# Entry
Amino acid sequence: MTEKHKTGHQKHGCVKKMGMFLQDPSLDKLTDNYHFPLDKDYLGGTGSSRFVIQDTNEYGYQVFPGLNWAEESDLSFERFEKDGLVDNPQFHQVNAFAVVSQTLDLIEEEIGHGFNWKNGASLVIRPHAFQGMNAYYDPMSPSLNFGYFNSPFRRGTVWTCLSHDIVAHELGHAIFDSFRPLYVYSPDKDTPALHESFSDLLAMFSALQYPSVVQHLYRETGGDMRHPSLISRLAEEFGVGIFGAGVPYLRSALEGASYRDAPKQAHARSTVWTAAIYEIMERLVKLDHPDGFPDTFDGFADFVAALVQATRWIKGMVLRALHYTPPNGLSMPMMARLIYEADAQIYSDDSKFRDIAREVFQKRYLWDERLNLKAPDIGYAFQDLEYADQQTLSFVIMKHAEELRIPPGALRLINPRLITTTRKTDKVKCGSSSQVKTITEHYLEYTYEVTQLVNDFFTGEMVPFSVYGGGTLAMDENWNAFLLATNPETYVDDPVGIAGTLQALKRARDKFDRTHKDSIQKTLAARDEQRSIKDRPVVPGCPFIIQRQSTGAYRLVHRCCNLQEHLQGISCTKHGLVQ
# Structure
């Protein structure tokens, strides 16, 4: 854990317990307390430096008053259990805050530094934003917004802010969006799918932090991770509330399609990646126990140890690889390669785990050996620019534009950054002893803007659109560049230099046109309508709205996360989607 936000069994320093459900009220025995570190952060009203609870609706009108947490001596689960839980709005506020705090701790531990939201302020959380069967993250006004509803399938109100899965899932969107804010404009159909999958995986990783959840998992599965469980399901109470009992509202962690057969729609497509990561974790769990776990205490202890190790590795590699990702867009095969490379950088002499990951990626057609990750030998040019201003950094980037695969005419750079992280990795065995490895890396992130014209065949007008390209150059502690990941992606057999970059741009444009040709023209015709990212698409299935900027070209913007659409998209079986 980072020193700033120790949780769980912290024994030192002044802490305040904040109660939470570890799943949702349908599993009311799975509860815990988050230990808020008062000596490292402040509580004021219903907020801290990282999160603020605003119990208002979507339009800013107050729904329920909040307690002043700084003056409350006890915010524990046990306190609220006496005063009322499920229909207590003050507990709803504490629960949502505790879940997001615990989950963000997990992220900060792995990436090696504190996290900043993209608007530079505390992330807003609205536990009672609207009445309806939904929840969403708003990337344009960064906030988590949770709905509530009465269901014909169960008694009482379903409060989505009480679901650990839902809260962690929506937080996943906020984290991914703050880490890579330009992904909302990416034309690649994998990028929004990865957004959804990352959020599902974060909910799973977050749940697996708790011993009581692992115990419940073992009782459900007997140690067989291929058996459906609370980990392979998403938002159980919410799913029953919408679909009723017996409907297969799985997150499809067990049966996602291969990449070759991936659905186009982002929510359904996300199951391709989620299922691959889940299979890697399942294989790692039984790596040292191929015959399973006996139904004894020793069997349970072995299962816990194996699951902890598997979760630690796959969580660590997925999250650390985020630093290698291009800042403007990402495909699943690129992410697969970056996970492999991230592990190789840390454990160069032990390839056992990443070889398993590669086997799974290859089986699911997620491994693409053609992707060009070769880095130019230009790390030396940036080693004295760690604290340089953007003008100086941009000047050096453009001096090396060809090596960084920046095309001619892309004269505008957007927020170039040079980042250094130093983090401690998980314990690794060295002979008979163990140690914690420390790794320092530097990352040059750059994004460029180009304008492309699209023909509106209804009017014959050529419509200009802003399109973003970019890359991340990863360097070791000595500023030796070892990886360059770009979007659009280049292949190892592309021409060298500018010709290869232009070919990659054309390939990306052709792929977009093939994917969206049936819907983009009608969407284009409605380009001057005032549409919100929460609105239904002009054409069903089209993931974009067209955003008119006050000046300049149009942009394609992904519609925001819609939890109900997500559950319907991932609630698929071999026979298709739930209708």
